[in-house]
Amino acid sequence: MDPRLQQILDQLGLSEIRKDAKYTAALEQQLEYVKAQTYDIKYPDLKARKFIPIDSSVDPGAETVAYQQWDSIGMADIIANYADDLPMVTALTEKFSQSIEGLGQAYDYSIQDLRRSAMSGSQLEMRKARAARRGIELRIDDIAATGYAAGQMKGFINHPNVSISAAVSDGTSARWVGGRSPPKAPADIKQDMYNAVVAVWDATLQTFSADSIVLSTTEYGHISQTENSPLSDRTILQSFLQNNLSVRMVDFWYKLNTADAAGTGPRMVVYKKDPEVLELVIPQDFEQFPPQAKNLSFVVPCHARCGGVVIRYPLAMVYMDGI
Fold it and tell me: What is the C-alpha separation between 82 and 189, in angstroms, rounded?
């Protein structure tokens, strides 16, 4: 029998349950079920882990995460035979660091919860356990999106080193949908998306090709539901994906609804989804500790550690505002 469970039963004065192998096994199984279920629940609206590769290689004991960004200067030249003045190449590096913060949450269950579960064989209350896991995931999602200024963590949708471009006005407005009627022409919307993809090519001298786009919800809904032309049954989004072979994913995130530079309008993020380019640092994923007795209940502390988003090649990303 798990010593922790035995200690709990002793504290509760449930020796008769502890002596009964059937009840002991049932209660022990229920406690393990609570722990397992907090990992099984999925929350599709928390999208940071979907959009950003995860780096869990950092030691959980680390207080900061540091990375180096390298560049090189120099190009070979035409030389004469027996030349002794070969041009030199220079390697430059810049070091960046940001903090890693601990995230805490807890849930509890009462003595009566334990007694009721032991008597009936029913599962312990799951809502609190799920809420604890979700609370930590919500904080990770927020940090991934916009960072944590006090810890100098950077965010995916507002990183200071990522360049910002502007959607092109069609003579009425640059906006696709909001604040105008009728909506922007499908060809002009696709041109904005093409321009952002090309901006990554140009900035990196074609070293990186953007393969992912994340949009605000209204703008994504429009291009995914609106026909590309009266003569086609394809949507604007389908037409774009068919004609732009480098982009593999176009998705949406409500956190982009007011993510532009002014904080009032939508933003589009175009980037290369690759661990070499960016990662979300999570040295310690969600973990639960043994129940701790407190008055007439038991508290289960939960913990995780997050280091924010590391963008090693900001030129492989571009933001577009005004859409």
Answer: 57
